[in-house]
Amino acid sequence: MNKEFISLLEKHQLRKTAPRLSVLSILKAKNTATSQPDLEAMIGKDVDRVTLYRILKTFEEKGIIHKILDLNGTANYAICHSSCNEHDHKDNHVHFNCTVCLHIYCLDNIQIPDIKIPSGFVSHTTNFVSYGICEKCSKKAEQYVNSNDEE
Amino acid sequence: MNKEFISLLEKHQLRKTAPRLSVLSILKAKNTATSQPDLEAMIGKDVDRVTLYRILKTFEEKGIIHKILDLNGTANYAICHSSCNEHDHKDNHVHFNCTVCLHIYCLDNIQIPDIKIPSGFVSHTTNFVSYGICEKCSKKAEQYVNSNDEE
DNA sequence: TCTTATATTGCAACAAAGTTGCATGATGTG
DNA sequence: CACATCATGCAACTTTGTTGCAATATAAGA
Ligand SMILES: [Zn+2]
Ligand SMILES: [Zn+2]
Ligand SMILES: [Zn+2]
Ligand SMILES: [Zn+2]
Protein backbone atom coordinates (compact mmCIF):
# COMPACT_ATOMS: atom_id res chain seq x y z
CA MET A 1 0.00 0.00 0.00
CA ASN A 2 2.89 2.29 0.80
CA LYS A 3 4.32 1.52 -2.60
CA GLU A 4 1.56 3.53 -4.18
CA PHE A 5 2.53 6.64 -2.24
CA ILE A 6 6.23 6.11 -2.74
CA SER A 7 5.87 5.92 -6.49
CA LEU A 8 3.62 8.96 -6.37
CA LEU A 9 6.39 10.92 -4.67
CA GLU A 10 8.98 9.58 -7.07
CA LYS A 11 6.83 10.59 -10.00
CA HIS A 12 6.94 14.16 -8.78
CA GLN A 13 10.61 14.08 -7.81
CA LEU A 14 9.91 14.54 -4.15
CA ARG A 15 11.95 12.81 -1.47
CA LYS A 16 10.22 10.05 0.41
CA THR A 17 9.93 11.18 3.97
CA ALA A 18 7.82 9.95 6.85
CA PRO A 19 5.74 13.13 7.20
CA ARG A 20 4.85 13.10 3.53
CA LEU A 21 3.83 9.47 3.57
CA SER A 22 1.69 10.09 6.64
CA VAL A 23 -0.10 12.95 4.95
CA LEU A 24 -0.75 10.89 1.84
CA SER A 25 -2.10 7.89 3.72
CA ILE A 26 -4.40 10.04 5.84
CA LEU A 27 -5.79 11.96 2.90
CA LYS A 28 -6.20 8.83 0.80
CA ALA A 29 -8.10 6.99 3.52
CA LYS A 30 -10.72 9.70 3.93
CA ASN A 31 -13.58 10.41 1.59
CA THR A 32 -13.75 14.00 2.74
CA ALA A 33 -11.29 16.86 2.55
CA THR A 34 -9.21 17.58 5.62
CA SER A 35 -8.14 20.86 7.15
CA GLN A 36 -4.60 21.44 8.28
CA PRO A 37 -5.59 21.62 11.97
CA ASP A 38 -7.32 18.26 11.66
CA LEU A 39 -4.32 16.78 9.93
CA GLU A 40 -2.12 18.08 12.73
CA ALA A 41 -4.29 16.37 15.28
CA MET A 42 -4.29 13.09 13.36
CA ILE A 43 -0.57 12.98 12.72
CA GLY A 44 0.34 14.05 16.22
CA LYS A 45 3.21 16.22 17.26
CA ASP A 46 5.85 14.18 15.49
CA VAL A 47 5.41 16.58 12.61
CA ASP A 48 5.74 20.29 13.01
CA ARG A 49 2.93 22.60 12.02
CA VAL A 50 5.12 24.43 9.54
CA THR A 51 6.35 21.22 7.97
CA LEU A 52 2.78 20.18 7.43
CA TYR A 53 2.03 23.57 5.93
CA ARG A 54 4.89 23.20 3.50
CA ILE A 55 4.05 19.63 2.59
CA LEU A 56 0.52 20.67 1.72
CA LYS A 57 1.77 23.62 -0.28
CA THR A 58 4.20 21.46 -2.23
CA PHE A 59 1.62 18.75 -2.87
CA GLU A 60 -0.83 21.33 -4.14
CA GLU A 61 1.68 22.86 -6.52
CA LYS A 62 2.57 19.43 -7.85
CA GLY A 63 -1.05 18.52 -8.46
CA ILE A 64 -1.15 15.78 -5.86
CA ILE A 65 -3.85 17.40 -3.78
CA HIS A 66 -6.29 20.24 -4.25
CA LYS A 67 -7.48 22.90 -1.84
CA ILE A 68 -11.07 23.75 -0.96
CA LEU A 69 -12.01 26.63 1.32
CA ASP A 70 -14.70 25.82 3.86
CA LEU A 71 -17.39 28.08 5.28
CA ASN A 72 -14.85 29.95 7.38
CA GLY A 73 -12.28 30.33 4.65
CA THR A 74 -10.04 27.66 6.16
CA ALA A 75 -8.15 25.54 3.65
CA ASN A 76 -9.10 21.87 3.37
CA TYR A 77 -7.22 19.39 1.26
CA ALA A 78 -8.17 16.32 -0.74
CA ILE A 79 -6.27 13.96 -3.01
CA CYS A 80 -6.51 14.79 -6.68
CA HIS A 81 -7.92 11.96 -8.68
CA SER A 82 -6.20 10.68 -11.78
CA SER A 83 -4.50 13.06 -14.02
CA CYS A 84 -3.61 16.31 -12.33
CA ASN A 85 -0.07 17.57 -12.59
CA GLU A 86 2.16 20.52 -11.88
CA HIS A 87 0.88 22.43 -14.86
CA ASP A 88 -2.81 21.90 -14.68
CA HIS A 89 -5.23 20.75 -12.08
CA LYS A 90 -8.41 19.36 -13.51
CA ASP A 91 -10.37 19.34 -10.28
CA ASN A 92 -13.48 20.64 -11.91
CA HIS A 93 -15.86 18.73 -9.71
CA VAL A 94 -18.45 20.08 -7.31
CA HIS A 95 -17.79 20.17 -3.57
CA PHE A 96 -20.35 19.69 -0.83
CA ASN A 97 -19.81 21.38 2.52
CA CYS A 98 -22.00 20.01 5.31
CA THR A 99 -23.06 22.76 7.67
CA VAL A 100 -23.54 20.27 10.52
CA CYS A 101 -20.39 18.12 10.58
CA LEU A 102 -18.48 20.65 8.47
CA HIS A 103 -17.07 17.90 6.29
CA ILE A 104 -16.28 18.73 2.69
CA TYR A 105 -17.05 16.03 0.15
CA CYS A 106 -15.49 15.82 -3.29
CA LEU A 107 -18.37 14.98 -5.62
CA ASP A 108 -16.02 13.53 -8.19
CA ASN A 109 -18.79 12.47 -10.51
CA ILE A 110 -20.44 15.84 -10.68
CA GLN A 111 -18.84 18.30 -13.05
CA ILE A 112 -19.09 22.02 -12.61
CA PRO A 113 -21.49 23.30 -15.26
CA ASP A 114 -20.37 25.91 -17.72
CA ILE A 115 -21.73 29.42 -17.52
CA LYS A 116 -21.59 32.50 -19.69
CA ILE A 117 -19.56 35.29 -18.20
CA PRO A 118 -19.68 38.90 -19.39
CA SER A 119 -17.62 39.74 -22.45
CA GLY A 120 -14.22 41.09 -21.54
CA PHE A 121 -13.90 38.72 -18.63
CA VAL A 122 -11.74 35.62 -19.05
CA SER A 123 -12.29 32.66 -16.76
CA HIS A 124 -9.52 30.19 -15.97
CA THR A 125 -10.98 28.19 -13.14
CA THR A 126 -14.34 27.80 -11.49
CA ASN A 127 -15.35 26.75 -8.05
CA PHE A 128 -18.71 25.29 -7.13
CA VAL A 129 -19.57 24.59 -3.53
CA SER A 130 -22.92 23.35 -2.34
CA TYR A 131 -23.79 23.92 1.31
CA GLY A 132 -26.29 21.78 3.16
CA ILE A 133 -26.64 18.59 5.14
CA CYS A 134 -24.76 15.46 4.21
CA GLU A 135 -26.14 11.95 4.11
CA LYS A 136 -24.72 10.90 7.48
CA CYS A 137 -26.03 13.96 9.27
CA SER A 138 -29.46 13.56 7.64
CA LYS A 139 -29.68 9.99 8.89
CA LYS A 140 -28.63 10.99 12.38
CA ALA A 141 -31.33 13.64 12.43
CA GLU A 142 -33.92 11.05 11.31
CA GLN A 143 -32.87 8.62 14.01
CA TYR A 144 -33.15 11.37 16.57
CA VAL A 145 -36.68 12.24 15.46
CA ASN A 146 -37.72 8.58 15.45
CA SER A 147 -36.36 7.90 18.92
CA ASN A 148 -38.33 10.85 20.21
CA ASP A 149 -41.52 9.55 18.59
CA GLU A 150 -41.19 6.24 20.39
CA GLU A 151 -41.19 7.74 23.86
CA MET B 1 -28.94 59.86 -0.86
CA ASN B 2 -28.39 59.26 2.79
CA LYS B 3 -32.13 58.81 3.13
CA GLU B 4 -31.87 55.54 1.29
CA PHE B 5 -29.44 54.16 3.84
CA ILE B 6 -31.34 55.56 6.79
CA SER B 7 -34.56 53.90 5.74
CA LEU B 8 -32.63 50.69 5.09
CA LEU B 9 -31.40 50.71 8.68
CA GLU B 10 -34.87 51.56 9.97
CA LYS B 11 -36.35 48.71 8.00
CA HIS B 12 -34.08 46.32 9.86
CA GLN B 13 -34.52 48.01 13.23
CA LEU B 14 -30.92 49.07 13.45
CA ARG B 15 -29.86 52.37 14.97
CA LYS B 16 -28.59 54.96 12.55
CA THR B 17 -24.98 55.57 13.43
CA ALA B 18 -22.15 57.20 11.55
CA PRO B 19 -20.04 54.04 11.15
CA ARG B 20 -22.97 52.12 9.69
CA LEU B 21 -23.83 54.84 7.24
CA SER B 22 -20.20 55.02 6.15
CA VAL B 23 -20.09 51.30 5.50
CA LEU B 24 -23.29 51.41 3.49
CA SER B 25 -22.22 54.34 1.33
CA ILE B 26 -18.85 52.78 0.60
CA LEU B 27 -20.29 49.40 -0.31
CA LYS B 28 -23.05 50.93 -2.39
CA ALA B 29 -20.65 53.09 -4.40
CA LYS B 30 -18.48 50.20 -5.49
CA ASN B 31 -19.31 47.63 -8.12
CA THR B 32 -17.01 45.09 -6.51
CA ALA B 33 -17.04 43.42 -3.14
CA THR B 34 -14.83 44.88 -0.44
CA SER B 35 -12.71 43.16 2.17
CA GLN B 36 -12.73 44.27 5.77
CA PRO B 37 -9.11 45.47 5.62
CA ASP B 38 -9.94 47.60 2.59
CA LEU B 39 -12.98 49.00 4.31
CA GLU B 40 -10.84 49.86 7.31
CA ALA B 41 -8.44 51.75 5.10
CA MET B 42 -11.25 53.63 3.35
CA ILE B 43 -13.13 54.62 6.48
CA GLY B 44 -10.00 55.58 8.36
CA LYS B 45 -9.30 55.16 12.02
CA ASP B 46 -12.44 56.93 13.15
CA VAL B 47 -14.01 53.50 13.30
CA ASP B 48 -12.51 50.67 15.29
CA ARG B 49 -11.62 47.39 13.63
CA VAL B 50 -13.93 45.46 15.92
CA THR B 51 -16.81 47.84 15.33
CA LEU B 52 -16.43 47.31 11.63
CA TYR B 53 -16.34 43.58 12.18
CA ARG B 54 -19.57 43.70 14.13
CA ILE B 55 -21.28 46.00 11.66
CA LEU B 56 -20.48 43.61 8.83
CA LYS B 57 -21.66 40.66 10.87
CA THR B 58 -24.93 42.35 11.74
CA PHE B 59 -25.52 43.50 8.18
CA GLU B 60 -24.91 40.01 6.89
CA GLU B 61 -27.31 38.46 9.37
CA LYS B 62 -29.98 40.99 8.45
CA GLY B 63 -29.58 40.31 4.75
CA ILE B 64 -28.23 43.76 3.92
CA ILE B 65 -24.93 42.49 2.61
CA HIS B 66 -23.54 39.13 1.59
CA LYS B 67 -20.12 37.63 2.09
CA ILE B 68 -17.84 36.15 -0.57
CA LEU B 69 -14.55 34.47 0.23
CA ASP B 70 -11.69 35.42 -2.04
CA LEU B 71 -8.75 33.32 -3.21
CA ASN B 72 -7.12 33.52 0.21
CA GLY B 73 -10.27 32.80 2.18
CA THR B 74 -10.63 36.39 3.27
CA ALA B 75 -14.17 37.65 3.60
CA ASN B 76 -15.35 40.28 1.14
CA TYR B 77 -18.70 42.01 1.34
CA ALA B 78 -21.16 43.37 -1.16
CA ILE B 79 -24.60 44.92 -0.91
CA CYS B 80 -27.47 42.52 -1.39
CA HIS B 81 -29.71 43.51 -4.21
CA SER B 82 -33.44 43.75 -3.78
CA SER B 83 -35.16 41.31 -1.61
CA CYS B 84 -32.87 39.61 0.87
CA ASN B 85 -33.87 39.55 4.50
CA GLU B 86 -32.99 38.11 7.86
CA HIS B 87 -34.51 34.77 7.01
CA ASP B 88 -33.26 34.15 3.55
CA HIS B 89 -30.58 35.50 1.37
CA LYS B 90 -31.24 35.07 -2.29
CA ASP B 91 -27.75 35.86 -3.46
CA ASN B 92 -27.73 33.09 -5.99
CA HIS B 93 -25.62 34.90 -8.52
CA VAL B 94 -22.18 34.01 -9.79
CA HIS B 95 -19.09 35.82 -8.50
CA PHE B 96 -15.97 36.59 -10.48
CA ASN B 97 -12.64 36.87 -8.69
CA CYS B 98 -9.92 38.54 -10.75
CA THR B 99 -6.55 36.97 -10.08
CA VAL B 100 -4.74 40.14 -11.09
CA CYS B 101 -6.48 43.00 -9.28
CA LEU B 102 -8.11 40.59 -6.82
CA HIS B 103 -11.46 42.35 -7.17
CA ILE B 104 -14.60 40.30 -6.71
CA TYR B 105 -17.48 41.16 -9.01
CA CYS B 106 -21.11 40.29 -8.32
CA LEU B 107 -22.44 39.04 -11.64
CA ASP B 108 -25.98 39.86 -10.63
CA ASN B 109 -27.43 38.82 -13.95
CA ILE B 110 -25.89 35.38 -13.97
CA GLN B 111 -27.71 32.81 -11.91
CA ILE B 112 -25.97 29.81 -10.43
CA PRO B 113 -27.07 26.78 -12.45
CA ASP B 114 -28.76 23.88 -10.70
CA ILE B 115 -26.93 20.60 -10.29
CA LYS B 116 -27.88 17.12 -9.17
CA ILE B 117 -26.36 16.17 -5.86
CA PRO B 118 -26.16 12.59 -4.56
CA SER B 119 -29.29 11.24 -2.92
CA GLY B 120 -29.22 11.66 0.82
CA PHE B 121 -27.54 15.03 0.53
CA VAL B 122 -29.66 18.15 0.98
CA SER B 123 -28.42 21.43 -0.43
CA HIS B 124 -29.50 24.76 1.02
CA THR B 125 -27.17 27.19 -0.67
CA THR B 126 -24.70 27.12 -3.49
CA ASN B 127 -21.68 29.17 -4.25
CA PHE B 128 -20.19 29.68 -7.68
CA VAL B 129 -16.95 31.58 -8.12
CA SER B 130 -15.20 32.03 -11.40
CA TYR B 131 -11.50 32.92 -11.29
CA GLY B 132 -9.75 34.71 -14.12
CA ILE B 133 -8.98 38.13 -15.49
CA CYS B 134 -11.50 40.92 -15.38
CA GLU B 135 -12.30 43.35 -18.14
CA LYS B 136 -10.19 46.19 -16.77
CA CYS B 137 -7.14 44.03 -16.28
CA SER B 138 -7.53 42.50 -19.76
CA LYS B 139 -7.56 45.95 -21.31
CA LYS B 140 -4.53 47.05 -19.33
CA ALA B 141 -2.66 43.99 -20.56
CA GLU B 142 -3.62 44.80 -24.16
CA GLN B 143 -2.43 48.37 -23.86
CA TYR B 144 0.84 47.15 -22.45
CA VAL B 145 1.38 44.79 -25.36
CA ASN B 146 0.51 47.50 -27.88
CA SER B 147 2.84 50.06 -26.36
CA ASN B 148 5.67 47.55 -26.60
CA ASP B 149 4.90 46.90 -30.27
CA GLU B 150 5.25 50.56 -31.10
CA GLU B 151 8.82 50.84 -29.89
C1' DT C 1 30.07 2.03 2.26
C1' DC C 2 31.43 6.88 2.62
C1' DT C 3 30.90 11.72 0.90
C1' DT C 4 28.63 15.42 -0.58
C1' DA C 5 25.07 18.45 -2.66
C1' DT C 6 20.61 19.52 -1.94
C1' DA C 7 15.97 18.83 -0.32
C1' DT C 8 13.46 18.77 3.91
C1' DT C 9 12.45 19.69 8.59
C1' DG C 10 12.04 22.12 13.22
C1' DC C 11 12.12 26.13 15.75
C1' DA C 12 11.31 30.83 16.55
C1' DA C 13 9.09 34.63 15.29
C1' DC C 14 5.77 37.28 13.10
C1' DA C 15 1.44 38.84 10.28
C1' DA C 16 -3.33 38.87 9.24
C1' DA C 17 -8.08 37.93 10.21
C1' DG C 18 -11.42 36.65 13.22
C1' DT C 19 -13.50 36.74 17.92
C1' DT C 20 -14.96 37.78 22.91
C1' DG C 21 -15.77 40.51 27.32
C1' DC C 22 -16.51 44.55 29.44
C1' DA C 23 -16.84 49.40 30.34
C1' DT C 24 -18.21 53.58 28.12
C1' DG C 25 -21.00 56.25 25.21
C1' DA C 26 -24.87 57.10 21.83
C1' DT C 27 -29.64 56.46 20.42
C1' DG C 28 -34.51 56.41 20.53
C1' DT C 29 -38.79 56.16 23.27
C1' DG C 30 -41.99 57.85 26.49
C1' DC D 1 -35.21 64.84 30.13
C1' DA D 2 -34.55 60.14 31.92
C1' DC D 3 -33.93 55.59 31.11
C1' DA D 4 -33.42 51.21 28.85
C1' DT D 5 -31.10 49.37 25.28
C1' DC D 6 -28.11 49.31 21.44
C1' DA D 7 -23.59 50.33 19.62
C1' DT D 8 -18.83 51.40 20.06
C1' DG D 9 -13.88 51.30 21.64
C1' DC D 10 -10.30 49.09 23.87
C1' DA D 11 -7.71 45.21 25.41
C1' DA D 12 -6.75 40.74 24.93
C1' DC D 13 -6.63 36.43 22.73
C1' DT D 14 -7.15 32.45 19.03
C1' DT D 15 -6.49 30.54 14.72
C1' DT D 16 -4.39 30.24 10.35
C1' DG D 17 -1.02 31.46 7.32
C1' DT D 18 3.93 32.73 6.37
C1' DT D 19 9.17 33.54 6.36
C1' DG D 20 14.26 32.92 7.75
C1' DC D 21 17.67 30.17 9.25
C1' DA D 22 20.15 26.49 11.28
C1' DA D 23 20.07 21.49 11.83
C1' DT D 24 19.11 17.19 9.67
C1' DA D 25 17.76 13.59 6.37
C1' DT D 26 17.86 11.96 1.66
C1' DA D 27 19.65 10.42 -2.72
C1' DA D 28 23.21 9.90 -5.82
C1' DG D 29 28.02 9.31 -7.06
C1' DA D 30 32.75 7.96 -5.76
ZN1 LIG E 1 -22.56 16.22 7.79
ZN1 LIG F 1 -12.39 17.84 -4.59
ZN1 LIG G 1 -8.85 42.59 -12.47
ZN1 LIG H 1 -22.61 39.04 -4.90
Automatic annotation (TrEMBL), chains A, B:
Q: Which cofactor does it need?
A: Zn(2+)
Q: Please tell me the species this chain comes from.
A: Aquimarina muelleri
**What residues does Zn(2+) bind to?**
C98, C101, C134, C137
- This protein's record includes keyword Flavoprotein: no
* Flavoprotein in keyword set: no
Q: What is the protein name given in its UniProt record?
A: Transcriptional regulator
Mind telling me which Gene3D superfamilies this protein's record contains? Winged helix-like DNA-binding domain superfamily/Winged helix DNA-binding domain (1.10.10.10)
The UniProt note on the cofactor reads as follows: Binds 1 zinc ion per subunit.
Extract the Pfam families matched here: FUR (PF01475)
A molecular function annotated in GO for this UniProt entry is:
DNA-binding transcription factor activity
Q: Name one GO biological process term.
A: regulation of secondary metabolite biosynthetic process
Q: InterPro entries from the entry?
A: FUR, WH-like_DNA-bd_sf, WH_DNA-bd_sf
What keywords would UniProt list here?
Answer: Metal-binding, Zinc
